[in-house]
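Quiz preparation item.
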């Protein structure tokens, strides 16, 4: 059941990003949400204004790179003591069936809310987070590069 929860929530997030449907994005994110790079400074989206701004920037990046799918392959799933679900996954960002960046690992934490399961914390590579904020590119060799 937990793998299905992650898959459903992740698919809602992907569809929001590739279609531009902010309401789906809002439904997948629990505020406040922590965005934590493995190195670098964490960012917390506190409210709907922060989430709206984040969505707009991420959408610009998704559109620029013509992303058509984001696949999250679960590697491990842990139930945390405070009722959270932590999923370590391998990320694949795709454009028309072709991976545009080498796979990388993220740790995504979900919380059950009145509206269902939502992401409340995302740990990822600094390159990926900078890319989603429009501050990085993807090199010809398939890695994130800081602008």
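Solution:
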């Amino acid at each position: 059941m937990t793998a299905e929860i992650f898959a459903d929530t992740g698919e809602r997030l992907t569809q929001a990003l590739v279609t531009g449907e902010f309401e789906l994005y809002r439904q997948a994110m629990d505020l406040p949400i922590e965005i934590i790079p493995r190195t670098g400074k964490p960012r917390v989206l506190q409210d709907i204004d922060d989430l709206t701004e984040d969505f707009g920037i991420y959408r610009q990046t998704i559109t620029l790179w013509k992303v058509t799918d984001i696949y999250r392959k679960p590697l491990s799933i842990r139930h945390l003591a405070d009722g959270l679900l932590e999923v370590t996954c391998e990320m694949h960002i795709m454009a028309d069936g072709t991976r545009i960046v080498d796979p990388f690992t993220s740790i995504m934490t979900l919380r059950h809310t009145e509206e269902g399961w939502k992401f409340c914390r995302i740990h990822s590579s600094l390159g990926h987070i900078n890319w989603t904020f429009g501050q990085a590119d993807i090199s010809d060799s398939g890695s994130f590069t800081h602008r």
